[in-house]
Amino acid sequence: MSEPTSGKNKLFDVRLVIGGLFVVYGVIVTTLGIFDSQAEIDKAEGVRINLWMGLAMLALGAFFLIWLRLNPPKPVPAQPEEESGPAQ
Q: Can you count the helices (H) and strands (E) in the chain?
């Protein structure tokens, strides 16, 4: 029979947190970049900086999430609970 494993390592994987935040912020910044006014574009010397940075953030977030999907964390064996009785 196989050893019981803990799913805590998947819950606290940094790649999930970083990838998720970059995707969320990338969607927000990309949306702002799509609707930039001409004054904002002129302020950035003709570059749609919000659009390009939003797309870069989306790409980085997708990279982290794909990396997590292709290389998941290894399961950690569950620690047996110790009895809390008095020491003898």
A: 4, 2
How far apart are alpha carbons 10 and 42 in whole angstroms?
Answer: 45
3-state secondary structure of 51: helix
Residue 23 CA to residue 26 CA, distance in Å, equals: 5
CB atoms within 10 A of CB 27: 14
pLDDT per residue as tens digits for the range 28-84: 999 999 999 999 999 999 999 999 999 999 999 999 999 999 988 887 676 766 666
What's this model's pTM, rounded to 2 decimal places?
0.72
User: What b-and-e string marks burial along 49-77, b requiring 16 or more CB atoms within 10 Å of the CB?
Assistant: bbbebbeebbeebeebbeebeeeeeeeee
Q: Are 5 and 78 in contact (CB under 8 A)?
A: yes
